[in-house]
Write a structure and sequence with these properties.
The protein is an alpha+beta fold. The protein has 2 domains: 210 residues, Porin; 121 residues, 2-Layer Sandwich (60s Ribosomal Protein L30, Chain: A). It has 6 helices and 14 strands. The chain has an 8-stranded antiparallel barrel. A 4-stranded mixed β-sheet has the order 11-14-12-13. Strand 6 and strand 7 form a beta hairpin. The longest helix is centred in the first third of the chain and has 21 residues. One of its GO terms (cellular component) is pore complex. GO terms for molecular function: porin activity. It holds the Pfam family OmpA.
Length: 365
């Protein structure tokens, strides 16, 4: 067991190195278009439970205590190749089996000649996983391994065969390349393969594998439409300012008195320098209709003259009187007649407004 830690570290480093390479070069993956699109995204949906996966692995097999002390030559490091498959019941539990050729370790002895062994076998194990990041997970396998050893000795006419079941344990790291593909690095240990006929050795196998997961839905790639800021829209609104005659004129007069509202109105009209202005005078129904008509015209003109003195261009102004013909209240009451005696200033204001960006129907904010 003294070689366990070095091989474990090699496996972890291989897996982490593969993961880092895949993270930094997603465009190098040569899969289908949906998987390639998923690689470019940092977000992957979870694997669907209840799916089958298959894979292949390549690695380095080493046999501890395989050679006797009298060996003149001993080569216990070999290349191993294998395939595996499993069923993923949940995101953390799977049942997995596989077949692996672990290569042919060999040795040479002064008395016995050359000794070579072909080692291969199958395994069945439970696989338990725990996520570390969205793409990376640690896993362990524990189960049984059937090992077949065909041993040949140069000075013996017949080969020696051995097959038996042993306990298998492993520790590894898996990394998701895409929704369907994943990499894995693993250290596997089988204690005491072989028997008294072929001798025994502890088997260490460090490997890198590529796995394909069946039954995975193609991830939906949503292209978010760029938010286009709307252009400011020109909006024209009509405003009507009603000025009480009592606040502008004396009784039965068209001579203006000081009024703060009129001054404020002049400032507003100066701000909107392109807008047309209509000035309309009104009276109540007291007195002759013709007289009221002329009085409304004079009062409207008085307001227009004031605005011109305040810098409002005459070309913008339209002046008219409507006498008692357009009341806004009843002329039967004092309060109603007071409301009807007025000068209305009507003008358009043009402003630029930006409408708020609306979220498309069904989208989340």
């Amino acid at each position: 067991m003294k070689l366990t830690l070095p091989y474990l570290l090699v496996a972890v480093n291989l897996a982490l190195g593969s993961a880092a390479y895949a993270e930094s070069t997603p465009s190098s993956y040569d899969g289908d278009s949906s998987d390639a699109a998923t690689v470019a995204s940092s977000v992957l949906p979870d694997y669907q439970n209840g799916h089958v996966y298959v894979g292949g692995r390549i690695g380095w097999a080493a046999y501890q205590d395989a050679c006797g002390s009298s060996a003149e030559y001993c080569d216990t490091d070999t290349l191993g190749l294998g395939v595996y498959g499993g069923y993923q019941f949940t995101d953390w539990f799977a049942l997995e089996g596989g077949m692996t050729s672990y290569g042919s370790p060999e040795a040479r002895y002064a008395t016995g000649g050359k000794v070579e062994a072909d080692v291969y076998g199958g395994e069945l194990a439970v696989k338990l996983s725990v996520p570390v990041t969205e793409r990376m997970a640690l896993f362990t396998r524990l189960g049984g391994a059937w090992q077949r050893i065909d041993k040949t000795v140069s000075r013996m006419p017949d080969s020696i065969e051995s097959s038996e079941w042993n306990v298998l344990s492993s520790l590894g790291v898996s990394y998701r390349i895409s929704q369907r593909w994943s990499l894995r690095g693993e250290y596997q240990f089988i204690d005491g393969i072989g028997d008294g006929e072929v001798d025994q050795a502890d088997q260490h196998f460090t490997s890198v594998g590529l796995t394909y997961h069946f039954g995975q839905a193609t991830p939906v790639i949503i292209d978010e439409a760029p938010v286009i800021e709307p252009e400011p829209q020109t909006v024209t609104t009509t405003q009507t300012v009603s000025l009480s005659a009592e606040s502008l004129f004396g009784f039965d007069s068209s001579e203006l008195t000081y009024n703060a509202d009129l001054e404020s109105l002049a400032e507003q009209l100066t701000q909107y320098s392109e807008d047309k202005v209509q000035i309309v005078g009104h009276t109540d129904s007291t007195g002759p209709e013709a007289y009221n008509q002329r009085l409304s015209e004079r009062r409207a003109q008085a307001v227009a003259d004031y605005l011109k003195r305040m810098g409002i261009a005459e070309s913008r102004l339209t002046v008219m009187g409507q006498g008692e013909s357009h009341p806004i209240a009843s002329n039967d009451t004092v309060e109603g007649r007071a409301q009807n005696r007025r000068v209305e200033v009507v003008f358009d204001t043009t402003v630029e407004e930006t409408q708020p960006v609306t979220t498309p129907s069904g989208a989340e904010e």
